[in-house]
Amino acid sequence: MRYLPHTEEDIQQMLEVVGAADLDALFSSIPEDCRRKGAMNLPEPLTEWELNGHMDCMGASMGAPPLYKVFMGAGSYHHYIPEITRQLLLRSEFFTAYTPYQPEISQGTLQTIYEYQTLVTRLLGMDVANASMYDGASALAEALLMTIRATRRKKVAVSRAAHPLYRQVVETYFAPTGFEVVELPVSKDGRTDLSGLADLGELAGVALQSPNFFGCIEDLEAAGKTIHADKKSLFVVAFSEPLAYGLLKSPGACGADIACGEGQSFGIPQSFGGPGLGMFAARQQYVRTMPGRLIGKTTDRDGRTGFVLTLATREQHIRREKATSNICSNQGLCATAATMYMAAMGGTGIRELSRLNRDRAEYLKAALAKAGHVSPFSAPTFNEFVVRFPKGFADTWQALLEKKIVAGLHLGPYYPELSDCWLMCVTETISKTGIDELVKEVAK
Amino acid sequence: MKGPIKDPIKDKMGTTGLIFNEPLLWEKGSPGRKGLSLPRRDVDETPLDDALVGDGPDFPDLSELDVVRHFTKLSQWNFGVDSGMYPLGSCTMKYNPKTNERQASIPGFAGAHPLLPESLSQGALELMHDLQGYLGEITGLPAVTVQPAAGSQGELTGMLIFAAYHKHKGQPRTKVLIPDTAHGTNPASAALCGFTSVGVKSGPDGVLLPESVAALMDEDTAGIMITNPNTLGLFEDNIRQVADIVHQKGGLVYGDGANMNAAMGIVNFGDIGVDVLHLNLHKTFSTPHGGGGPGAGPVCVTPELEPFLPVPRVVKDGGTYRLDEDYPLSVGKVHAFYGNFGILLRAYSYILSVGKTLKQVSQLAVLNANYIKEKLKGHYHLPYDRPCMHECVFTDKHQQEHHVATLDIAKRLMDHGFHPPTIYFPLVVSGAIMIEPTESESKETLDQFIDAMKQIAQEAIDCPDCLHESPQFPKVRRLDETAAARNPCLQG
């Protein structure tokens, strides 16, 4: 086995030093009745070349771009990943390091994550960002738990237009706590209906997603004002498509107290849904109730600038059961990829890319409308939108798979009231020609 | 500031090399530069309500080469497993096989949308299904979920299962027993599920005593969380008795599998009374630590607890695979999709590459740790002198006589070209130095590490200031962590 460097001779010499007769004798401290009876039923090791063949074969069964045109977003977006991100990420000094517990030999990770925190605050218009959470869903759950810590209230409200799978994770996190999660309805235009908010009593936090699951851009400024009518209540803005904030007014500019969501769009492969990147940012006043790692700037003994893990007294390895969260690691490598991606895009690039995403999606929306397939919602959208299709579209959708087109996500399983609707997504990776092809097929 | 210390050891493995300075991203660049190839604009611009449009984020504009040099220079300030031995206790910093990256980048996997129809995701579902099977076989707990995104989320899942199980039995419980040697994530995960954690003191030999557990276990206690081998690197040899005591009171036994690298093919956790166990794929199963993640924390349980596992479950019907949501007792979802699939894939690739040799992985990991323990025990204080598993714990007791502390020893190791061990953990040992070499390191490398540790022990006598002033070689010297926490500067 090429990962095991020991020769027979090494093993003998080492056993002698240890005073064990053979490898089994190393486990003498394990009582006989705790030892495993019989060998593990595992396959013979594969050679590197056999493994390549096996994995290529499994991978070939998947319906992924570029072979397939996937008009599906819903929290996982197909964006181009520049080769520099892919290659720089494989720098094994980043790749094979762990948590920067020893800052003197971890400055690469530390400065990168400090840059990540900074770029995330600039993207979202917030004061502080942490070093990342697991994904958009757990980031939202943690944000809502944070509102409870910050306000000492017991109830939160989440928009029904927030990602249904994120809401399921929120439910899981809240189930054993005794705190309550209430759902805010959706208006006719596809945005969250806040008209009943005042009747819900004392809320620790109110979470809206924008763009929401239907792709609709929420009127965050108005929502912020409504929510802050209760001065104690925190306004949480979630997102699954961070690229939107290359174009849209940031959550911070609209009064958000916490902004959190999924960062997969920024240089991270979709990879069947994970690993992603839970982005998490807040206003300065809440920094000490935030979950997750934080990197801060400081100086060394010679006065040189350096970076360290900081405010660790919030975290589980110091505070144990009193910690702000049980989270230990972050998504370090994904945050590193996102930093590289944001650096490569720059302010000018993200603006252009963001516009192109919206414009291509608008092009599809208009073309479908022309063919008679319109959205039930009137609110403006970013790179996703809902379309109502006539009866029988499920068959068309199935037939299109044969043509290697995945024509959106059926909303029926998530929203029974929208069982004749599909959620469509267009990013920069599908050109006008590709869009025309879909429209032609659907219009048949 | 003192003058330069005369360093008695000249030919250390560590060296200054060529280290470049590099400013922060936003101190570079010029508006209008681009590092990204933007796709051609082939559609018209569409208007959007001005009230919704912002100014766009204030990111610096850099060229492609600017970005490449920036991150290349930053990477050179880091120490990784590929740089040298990284004996960080409890973290299992083993070699991360390069072929796993090749497998993860296969376009069908890397580009797969998680909500693809099952007909277009058979490969990914098969992979998860088979990985669950392998992990079930390795642990002896056959029902497996691979959804938790990290060890701590695995723990949370385990505690949710505890809560759901007792609720289902009609008797919700409020407490969980946690030994004093546990990782901090254990009490934090229990607290997140509303449990009060009750500490259990370990006995004089560093392991749990059945009577201590019996004294605390009652019918309001949901169960116990045990790390085995524990964080002192010792096998909890009373585990069966402890499990019996907990089970007799209707409780469950949680195994923290952080230290699984010692036990593959050696212990069947199902047989010794563990009901729920999480694994850290980034530890035992070689997936990269990535500067702090992403990890993956699958949870393995007994058949009795299978109904409580998170949904969706991957199931096999004849020759095809599908996702099944129909588990009414399930704790729900802990991840938006199915967990960190890209990490699962790397662990799967590792398991297929190593196959039945996995037992040897554990044997050699334990051999390496015991070898270090034997070679260093005359030079450093060994609080528990008994055979260890995959890691050993020393202290700075002898060096304290010369006013040299664990922190100084750790920092000096950097100058010698090694990543320091885990320090000041477990908390039950004062000045702990927790060394986990893993099976990846050869005898020659271990000997070099042992020599470095011995030299440092000698330096502590001859030149304590050499240690107080270390490290000398890295990009920066010791950093002021107090100032960082007092006046937090978290963004530029």
Summarize the structure.
The complex is a heterodimer of chains A (444) and B (492). Chain A has twelve helices and 14 strands.
Keywords:
heterodimer, A: 444 residues, alpha/beta, Aspartate Aminotransferase, domain 1, Aspartate Aminotransferase, domain 2, seven-stranded mixed β-sheet, three-stranded antiparallel β-sheet, 12 helices, 14 strands, 34% helix, globular, B: 492 residues, 2 domains, 16 helices, 12 strands
Write the layout of secondary structure elements.
The complex is a heterodimer of chains A (444) and B (492).
Chain A: H1 8-18, H2 48-59, E1 69-70, H3 83-89, H4 92-95, H5 107-124, E2 128-129, H6 136-151, E3 155-159, H7 164-174, E4 180-184, E5 205-209, H8 220-227, E6 234-239, E7 258-262, E8 278-282, E9 295-299, E10 305-309, H9 316-319, H10 332-370, E11 384-388, H11 393-402, E12 405-406, E13 409-410, E14 421-425, H12 432-443
Parallel strand pairs in A: 1-12, 3-4, 3-5, 5-6, 6-7
Antiparallel strand pairs in A: 2-8, 7-8, 9-10, 11-14, 13-14
Helix pairs in contact in A: 3-10, 5-10, 6-7, 10-12
Chain B: H1 64-75, H2 98-104, H3 107-110, H4 122-139, E1 143-145, H5 151-168, E2 175-179, H6 185-192, E3 196-200, H7 210-216, E4 221-227, H8 239-248, E5 252-257, E6 276-279, H9 281-284, E7 299-301, E8 313-317, E9 320-324, H10 341-354, H11 358-376, E10 392-394, H12 397-400, H13 406-415, E11 422-423, E12 433-435, H14 443-462, H15 464-468, H16 481-486
Parallel strand pairs in B: 2-3, 2-4, 4-5, 5-6
Antiparallel strand pairs in B: 1-7, 6-7, 8-9, 10-12, 11-12
